[in-house]
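Figure 2 data, in text form.
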Amino acid sequence: MISWLRRRRWRSVRSIRREFHARIDRFKRRSKGHVRAALLADHEIARAVARHAQETGESASTTWNRVRGYVEEIVPNFNLISYYRLGYGVARLLIPLFYKVSVGYEARAALDAIPRDATVIYLMNHRSNADYVVVAYVLSGRVALSYAVGEWARVWPLEAVFKSFGSYFVRRRYREPLYHRVLERYVQLITRNGVTQGIFLEGGLTRDGRFREPKLGLLDYLIRVKTEPGFDSPLHIIPVAINYDRVLEDRSLLREQQSEDERLPRRQQVGEVISYVVKVSFRFLLRRARRYGRACVNFGAPLSVDDWLARRPGVLHLRREERLPQLKELAAEVMHRIGAIMPVTPVPLAATALLRHPGEHITRVEWEKQLDSLREALRAAGAHVVGEERASAEILDRALVMFTLRRVVFPDAGGFHVDREQDPLLRYYANSIAQLFDGTDRQRSR
C-alpha cells in the first residue's frame, strides 16, 4: 500500500513538472525535519539561547523548548502536489469568477538577463489578501513562491494550507529578540539555499490606497545573508506592482481609519461580511454574478543587491541603528519602482477623474474629457494603462460597471449623479495611481 502511494505521488510530481515547467527550488523540497534540524544546530541560535537565558533567568532547557516552538511555527512543509493541484486548481477555478487577471507589463529583457544561479526575491505592494493568490497564479508557470505570511493566516485550516504551499509565518509586532533571531536565521537559511520568496514590503494592507511606510526587518535579514561565508550567489530584487478595479475588503480597510466611536460594532461588521457572502453566493447560483473588473500584475526591472552593496562598502557590518537608514534608502528605491510600474486599471482612473470634477453631477462628455486629459498625462509619465488602446468611452463603460453596482454614481438627466459621501472610497482607488501624477501636478501648479 505504501509503495503504491509513493508511485502515485511520483507520477503526480512528474505530471506537474511536465505541465507547468516551473522552477521548483531544490531546497524547498527538503523535509521539514531537515530544516528544523539545521536551525536547531545553528551556532547563532545557540548563542541567542545562551544570551536569552542569561538575561531572563530562564533555564537553558526551557529556552530551547521555546526555540523549538518558534521553529515549529515558522518552518513550512512544502508539498508540490498541494501547491499545484490544490492551490493552483482552486485559484484557476475562483479567480476568473471574480477578476480578469493579466500581466500588463514585464521588463522581459532585464528579467531574462538574471543569472540562473541567482537568488530572486519578489518585493510587492499590498492591496488585498487576494494578492497572495493572484501573484502566485500569474507566476505558476515560472516559479513556486514562498511567501512571508502574517498572523492573520495562523488559524485552522489556513495555517496548514499555507504551510503546504511553502509559506512561513511572521509575528509582526512581537518584539522578543530570541524569536527574531530564529526568524532571521530561517530567512537567511532559505535565501542562502536559493529559495524564491515573495514579500510584501509594506508589511500589511494599505488602508487608504497609498503606499505604507516600508518595513525593514525582513529586508534586513535578506540583505545580510550576503555576509554569510561561502554565499556568493547573485541576489536580485524584482519589484512587483498589483492593482485592482475592486479590492474585496476595501470598505473594511477604510473603516479601520475611523475612530472607535465611528466604527460599526463588531457584530454588525460580521453581519455585513456574512450578508455579502450570501449575496455573492446567490448571484453565482442564479448566474447573475459579475466579475469585479481587472486584477493586473506588473513586473519591473530587477535591482541587483550586489551592485547596491558595492556602492556602500561595509554597510552590512554597521550596527543595526546605523545600517537601517541606508536600508531605508533601498526600500524607498524599490517602492519608487513599484509605484512607477503600477497598473492603471479603469476604476482608479475613473475615480481620479471624478475627484477632480467639482459638484454632484457630471455629464458623460465631461467625464470622458477628464479621462482623456489624465491619459495624456499618464502617457507623458510613461505609465502602464491597462487597455491603453481603447477609447476613453470604453474605459469609462468598464468603470461604470463597478460604480453603479456599488452605488457611487446613479444615472441622471444628461449624465450621472455622484454620491459624494463615497469620496473616501473614490480616494482609496485614486490613491493607488496618485504617484504617477505627482510630476505633472507639480508642473501644473507652478
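Caption note: The chain has a mean pLDDT of 90.
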